Amino acid sequence: MVDYGDDGEPAGTSPAEEVMTTFSRHHFGSSEDTADGFSVTIIENMKEEYGLFVWPCSIILAEYVWQQKSRFTSASVVELGAGTSLPGLVAAKVGADVTLTDDSNRSEVLTHMRRQCDLNDIKCKIHGLTWGVWGTQTFCLCPNIILGADVLYDSCAFDDLFATVAFLLQSTPSSIFITTYHNRSGHHLIGFLMVKWGLKCVKLLDGFSFMPSYKTSSLSGNIQLAEIVLDTANGDEKKLM
Ligand SMILES: C[S@@+](CC[C@H](N)C(=O)[O-])C[C@H]1O[C@@H](n2cnc3c(N)ncnc32)[C@H](O)[C@@H]1O
Is 83 in the pocket of ligand 1 (CB under 6 A)? Predict the structure, then answer.
């Protein structure tokens, strides 16, 4: 547990650490100024590796969770590669039972996730979950909704990620994987891997199509949001390529 001062800053940080640590505030509501909705504060640590930075995919997925909040109320949600965890924290705020996960080998990220929960007074479970590695806890997760923001960035890890997603989708009937990713050159590979792991895309959106304008000025890139399910029947399939 981290102690925070009256100003919300972690108590006792050295000047060197303060330079490295920033706080970003993310509002979810009908507009930036209204009192409705809520805000989530994220601690970003520039000193650490990429997992401790709020990536644009995370901001877009978190906004989608907010806009789709009725689907998340009382749902069991697992966020993969959560890093700074904004989508999972928003899901918890709207009533989901959330487990935040990240690479078991990166204990600093798991510690950081606990700090995010404490700072925002949000209760989430936190587990190490390395894609493609099955621990006892993985078998007990059984989520209705799996979230993953910017987890499709290293093609070497795609197979492990899809294997984990397929396993989790098989563990709970009618479950869904909602992911945001940069539309780079990897679509053919993503499409191939979905077929390989028995998955299909049922919704594909331009990530900017549902974002309020006040949030888009700081974002760039070609980001897509996909909803992916097990391909158990010959339904309407949207191909990613
Ligand atoms: C680009 S960051 C995205 C972080 C966060 N979802 C966001 O959008 O701000 C990728 C995340 O995936 C995690 N990750 C990378 N390889 C992983 C693996 N093999 N198993 C589990 N997590 C992994 C990293 O630790 C990191 O938090």
Answer: yes
Tell whether 121 is covered by a domain. Answer: yes
Q: How far is the CA of 128 from the centre of ligand 1 (A)?
A: 11
Give the closest residue to 184 by CA, choosing from 206, 160, 153: 153
Residue 156 within a domain: yes
Question: Residue 18: pLDDT above 90?
Answer: no
- Please list, residue by residue across 98-117, b when 16 or more beta carbons sit within 10 angstroms of its beta carbon and e when fewer do: bbbbbbeebeebbebbebbb
Helix axis angle, 86-93 relative to 56-67, nearest 10°? 20
Domain range for 198: 49-230
Structurally, how many domains does the chain consist of? 1
Nearest atom of ligand 1 to the alpha carbon of 58: 8
Q: Is the pLDDT of residue 226 over 80?
A: yes
Compute CA distances 115 → 51, 69, 84, 89, 110, whole Å. 14, 24, 10, 12, 9
Question: Which pLDDT does position 48 carry in this prediction?
Answer: 55
Instruction: Output the domain CATH number for residue 174.
Output: 3.40.50.150
- Token pair, residue 240, equals 């990613």
Relative to the CA of 61, which ligand 1 atom is closest?
Answer: 8
SS3 of residue 99 by DSSP: strand
* C-alpha 52 to ligand 1 mean position (Å): 9
> In what helix (H) or strand (E) does residue 93 lie, and over which residues does it extend?
helix 86-93
Instruction: DSSP letter for 4, please.
Output: B
Token pair 């949207």 is found at 238
Q: pLDDT grade, residue 99 (50/70/90)?
A: very high
